[in-house]
Specification:
Elements lengths: L9 H5 L6 H13 L2 H4 L20 H14 L3 H10 L1 H7 L10 H13 L3 H14 L8 E9 L18 E5 L2 E12 L5 E8 L8 H4 L6 E4 L6 H9 L3 E4 L12 H14 L3 H9 L10 H23 L11 H4 L8
Parallel strand pairs: 1-5, 5-6
Antiparallel strand pairs: 1-3, 2-3, 3-4
Helix pairs in contact: 4-13, 5-7, 8-13
Length: 339
C-alpha cells in the first residue's frame, strides 16, 4: 500500500514564496520540462511483493525525485535527509508539505536496494531516454564512444590483518599511472546526451564494449585510436555507418599522413561532446566510487547517467520558461535606487 501525503496546509500557503531564487527556478524548470510520473512508470510494481499489512511505502515518484536530488546536488544519504527536512524548495519539489513526514536515510538506502534487486535500473534508463527521444532531443547523427576510469578508495589494513579495499575493483595503467577502481564505458550522441553505458572493472580494455554500445541507429561512430580495428571498421562500413575512429601510426610509419591528420582533427571536434558527462559528474562530487562491489557502483553510475541526461535536456530545450523575479533595484523608490 502506498503512503498518501497530507494536503497542503495553511503554513504551506504562507511560505509558498520563500526559498532560494536559483533553486526555485531550477525546480520550476524541472516540472515544466519533464514528466517525473512518466519517468517512474517502470517502478510502479517495485513494492508489489510487500504484504498488505504494515506501514505503507513512499510513492515511487517521490523516492525517485529524492535520488535525482542527490545526484544533482552531490548529496549523501544523511545529507539528503537533512536537506529534505531543512529546505522548503526541496520539499515542494518532491511533493512533501510542511506537515508531512520525511524519508530518512535508511529509506533512501532501502529504495536503492530494491531498484538493484528488482533489476529496474535498465528499464528506468531506457524509459528516461525514450522520454527525451519523444522530445526530439536525442540525435542519430553520430554515436561517440569513450571510457573513463572511476577510482575506488585504496582502503586500509585492519588490526586483524584483513584489508578494507574493494575486492571487485581492479588495477590498470593510465598514461603510465597505476589506477585502482572501475571503468565506465559510455556512448553519447553529438549533443552529449548519454544513449548507452556499461560499467565494468578497470582492467577491461576500452575496445571490449564498443560494438555493444554502437549497436543502435546512427550515421557515424566516433572514437579515439584505442578502438581502431580493421574488422570493426569494415563491419560499420558494411552497415552504411561511417567509422570516424582516429588513426594512429602503425609499425614502420614515422608520421601520420595529411589525410589522417585531417580526419583526426574532424573526429576530435565531434568527440569533445563525450567529455561533458564526466566533467559534470566530477563537478557534482563523483570523484571516486561510493560503494563496494561492481553491481552497487553500476547502479550508482546509472542513476548519475539518468540525472545528467535530464539536466542536460534543460540546456538543449533553450531558455527557462519561468518568469524571473524583478530585480531588487526595480523595487526601490526612485530616489533610493543604487548608482
Amino acid at each position: 500500500m502506498e503512503r498518501k501525503n497530507m494536503a497542503p496546509a495553511l503554513i504551506d500557503g504562507l511560505t509558498s514564496d520563500l526559498g532560494g531564487r536559483k533553486t526555485e527556478a531550477f525546480f520550476g524548470r524541472c516540472n515544466e520540462l519533464f514528466d517525473f510520473e512518466a519517468l517512474a512508470a517502470p517502478l510502479k510494481d517495485l513494492f508489489d511483493d510487500r504484504p498488505k499489512a504494515g506501514r505503507p511505502h513512499w510513492p515511487v515518484a517521490l523516492m525517485l525525485k529524492c535520488l535525482l536530488l542527490q545526484k544533482w546536488f552531490g548529496l549523501s544519504d544523511p545529507q539528503a535527509e537533512e536537506l529534505l527536512r531543512d529546505r522548503l524548495s526541496f520539499r515542494r519539489f518532491v511533493g512533501l508539505s510542511l506537515i508531512d513526514a520525511t524519508p530518512d536515510e535508511t529509506t533512501l538506502c532501502v529504495f536503492r536496494k530494491r531498484l538493484l534487486e528488482a533489476g529496474k535500473l535498465q528499464p528506468l534508463f531506457d524509459n528516461s531516454l525514450a522520454i527525451l527521444r519523444r522530445k526530439g532531443l536525442v540525435l542519430n547523427e553520430g554515436t561517440i564512444v569513450d571510457a573513463t576510469i572511476i577510482d575506488a578508495p585504496m582502503g586500509h589494513l585492519r588490526p586483524d590483518g584483513t584489508h578494507t579495499h574493494d575486492p571487485a575493483a581492479t588495477y590498470t595503467r593510465n598514461h603510465g599511472t597505476l589506477r585502482h577502481g572501475y571503468k565506465a564505458h559510455i556512448a553519447t550522441d553529438v549533443t552529449g546526451l548519454i544513449t548507452d553505458y556499461l560499467f565494468d572493472t578497470a582492467k577491461t580494455h576500452d575496445s571490449r564494449h564498443i560494438d555493444q554500445l554502437t549497436d543502435q541507429e546512427t550515421r557515424a561512430v566516433y572514437a579515439d585510436s584505442a578502438y581502431r580495428d580493421q574488422e570493426r571498421t569494415k563491419r560499420l562500413q558494411d552497415k552504411g555507418v561511417m567509422a570516424m575512429i582516429t588513426s594512429k601510426r602503425v609499425r614502420g610509419q614515422k608520421e601520420l599522413t595529411p589525410e589522417q591528420r585531417r580526419m583526426n582533427k574532424a573526429c576530435s571536434v565531434v568527440r569533445a561532446a563525450v567529455e561533458h558527462p564526466r566533467a559534470w559528474m566530477v563537478k557534482m562530487g563523483y570523484l571516486m566510487t561510493r560503494y563496494r562491489g561492481l553491481t552497487k557502483n553500476a547502479l550508482d553510475f546509472g542513476l548519475l547517467a539518468i540525472s545528467y541526461n535530464i539536466k542536460r535536456s534543460f540546456s538543449l530545450l533553450g531558455k527557462p520558461l519561468t518568469k524571473p523575479r524583478p530585480n531588487r533595484r526595480d523595487r526601490l523608490p526612485v530616489r533610493l535606487r543604487l548608482a
